[in-house]
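Thread amino acids onto this structure.
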């Protein structure tokens, strides 16, 4: 089955709203084995929407729309879809009863223009919407192609708000499509940190060159590399059997740099490691200004082991709060390996933790010198009596330098923990 996604709404064209529905629908359709050929955004205009339906159905069997199902005159997606399929809209009493119950529940009066949302073609499949006022529907009709042959076409019209669209699609459209597709797509995502996309691609180039089913797609998200392995099969078990050996081979080659599988974030992996091992931690930050602590505590339950975070921006704070020596600052400067080590050890001893994690650097845009340029960062780790530090040179604006510092600090600690347990064959200070 081939599909197109059409997002309807002038507000999308103006940039007032970001079209997150396209990403969600494309990913879910891929999981069903439906090939998405095209996505587009069109304003609230009947003529243009009819043109989009005409163009889309030259190549596709299915069009899914989002938006334009509201009570106002410019909400015309359903009406235009019905017009394209030569279907007449009639009042659906069940939809009207549901809408009346919804308005009663929220203690508001049902206005006449809201009743517009209860009109559908008689043969349409109505998609309930417990999260809003606009039901969706699936229309099936016959349309002549360029060779004058009649072909079945399907239009699924869904509301625009994601909190309404997503459950409607998953609860109603997915079961409908599952009955009409004879294959599914299943993906497994390998998340990689500390190795660039080009290096990753080189390592698995032979696998990519010889791919058929499954396929391997490398791409970058933020500052991590990602490999998506996608298999097509009759069912999930068949897909998993195709994915497994390829995933195992990639992990064997890249090793410790694969930090997670799926949508897991780096702070989640680190948080689980710290809690499972009962490793208490405190942070001392300069250039990241609290971003490191704020990221680590995103993980629920981290309060078990995260005891304290200090933002010691000035030299005075570093000396007073962390015990960094004045002679260290005078001789090496605030941005130095020596200062990073003393910061990490100082916060660990002050908080009484097994781990101290520190950051100091020049995030920019100013403050850099030839000897210490913008982007120079040191991350320090105090771990149960031992002190380590690593130098980084990051590129990008102030926000990106801070983000990279946080991610590399967390990954440095992750790899150090694994190294101490004999699970990391690549020392934390080395790159692939």
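Threaded sequence (432 positions):
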């Amino acid at each position: 089955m081939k599909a197109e996604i059409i997002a309807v709404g002038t507000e999308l064209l103006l940039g007032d709203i970001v079209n997150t529905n396209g990403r969600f629908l494309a990913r879910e359709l891929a999981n069903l084995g439906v090939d998405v050929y095209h996505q587009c955004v069109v304003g609230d205009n009947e003529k243009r929407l009819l043109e989009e339906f005409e163009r889309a159905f030259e190549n596709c069997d299915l069009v899914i729309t989002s938006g334009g199902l509201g009570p106002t005159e410019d909400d015309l997606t359903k009406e235009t879809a019905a017009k394209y399929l030569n279907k007449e809209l009639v009042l659906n009493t069940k939809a009207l009863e549901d809408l009346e119950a919804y308005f009663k529940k929220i203690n508001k009066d049902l206005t006449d223009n809201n009743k517009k949302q209860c009109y559908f073609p008689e043969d349409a499949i109505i998609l309930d919407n417990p999260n809003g006022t606009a039901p969706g529907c699936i229309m099936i009709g016959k349309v002549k192609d360029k060779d004058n042959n009649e072909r079945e076409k399907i239009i699924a019209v869904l509301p625009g708000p994601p909190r309404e669209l997503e459950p409607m699609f998953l609860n109603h459209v997915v079961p409908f499509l599952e009955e009409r597709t004879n294959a599914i797509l299943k993906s497994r995502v390998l998340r990689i940190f500390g190795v660039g996309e080009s290096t990753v691609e080189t390592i698995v180039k032979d696998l990519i060159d010889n791919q058929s089913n499954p396929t391997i797609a490398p791409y970058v998200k933020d500052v991590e590399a990602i490999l998506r392995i996608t298999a097509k099969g009759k069912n999930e078990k068949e897909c998993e059997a195709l994915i497994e050996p390829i995933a195992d081979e990639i992990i064997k080659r890249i090793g410790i740099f694969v930090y997670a599988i799926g949508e897991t974030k780096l702070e989640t992996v680190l948080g689980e490691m710290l809690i499972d091992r009962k490793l208490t931690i405190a942070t001392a930050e300069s250039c990241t200004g609290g971003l490191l602590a704020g990221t680590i505590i995103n993980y629920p339950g981290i309060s078990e082991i995260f005891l304290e975070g200090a933002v010691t921006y000035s030299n005075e704070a570093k000396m007073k709060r962390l015990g960094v020596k004045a002679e260290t600052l005078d001789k090496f400067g605030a941005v130095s390996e020596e200062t990073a080590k003393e910061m990490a050890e100082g916060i660990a001893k002050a908080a009484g933790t097994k781990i101290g994690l520190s950051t100091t650097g020049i995030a920019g845009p100013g403050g850099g010198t030839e000897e210490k340029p913008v982007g120079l960062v040191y991350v320090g780790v105090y771990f149960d009596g031992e002190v380590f530090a690593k130098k980084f040179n990051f590129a990008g604006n102030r926000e990106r330098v801070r983000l990279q510092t946080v991610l590399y600090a967390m990954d440095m600690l992750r790899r150090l923990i694994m190294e101490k347990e004999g699970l990391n064959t690549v020392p934390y200070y080395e790159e692939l």
